[in-house]
Amino acid sequence: MSRREWDRSAIMARVKAGSITLVEATPLLGISYRQGKRLYARYKARGASGLVHASAGRVSNRSHPLAEREMVIWPGGGLSIVAG
Length: 84
What we know:
Elements: H1 3-17, H2 22-29, H3 33-46, H4 66-73
Helix pairs in contact: 1-2, 2-3
């Protein structure tokens, strides 16, 4: 969980406890009220883990295969992709 997500969790906990309203929380989060409602619904349903970015931990669909990356990083490990 990133620092930003941790901060969001703390603010959403205050909303859930009733110490601040969602209207007061959205400027603290830097988001619109509409996005705040979506975020709060995910927080109520899944807790703090609902605030973690959905793509966290996934491999990029634009990444190159591991063997190809290793050849670029370790040129002595096989054929070099980079012309030299």
